[in-house]
Amino acid sequence: MNWKGNELKTAGDLMDKGIDRCDTPEEAQEFMKLYRAENEFADKNIGYLSGYYSPDKMAEIQKWFGVEHPIFGGAIPTPIEAFKMGKKIGKKQKKAAQ
Questions:
Q1: What percent of the chain stands above pLDDT 70?
Q2: What is the model's pTM?
Q3: Cβ(33)–Cβ(64) under 8 Å?
Q4: How many Cα atoms occupy the beta-carbon half-sphere of 89 within 13 Å?
């Protein structure tokens, strides 16, 4: 995907050259329109990436881009809550793989 003259190929590109370059909610919606046309997992991807930002920025991303985190939904977890959920999911996946 190309956004504001930059080719977005990686998760880092989506964050640095995509999400971080949207200055208004309208730009964020235009970004999502283009990204959704190219990737059926666009909402989940951007929602997931929102979890790498501060709680305030995560909430803004979810609002502006119209997405939710695929695990936490619209909730903004504390770092401890996120860590505990990661452990829980990891244990489930390990059990399922056995």
A1: 100
A2: 0.88
A3: no
A4: 9
pLDDT tens, residue by residue, 2-33: 999 999 999 999 999 999 999 999 999 999 99
Q: What is the Cα–Cα distance from 63 to 58, expressed in whole angstroms? A: 9
CA–CA separation, 22 and 65 (whole Å): 10
Residue entry with tokens 């501060």 = 54
Q: What is the 3-state secondary structure (H, E, C) of the chain?
A: CEECCEECCCHHHHHHHHHHHCCCHHHHHHHHHHHHHHCCCHHHHHHHHHCCCCHHHHHHHHHHHCCCECCCECCCCCHHHHHHHHHHHHHHHHHHHC
Dist. CA 80–CA 30, nearest whole Å:
34
Are the beta carbons of 51 and 85 closer than 8 angstroms?
no
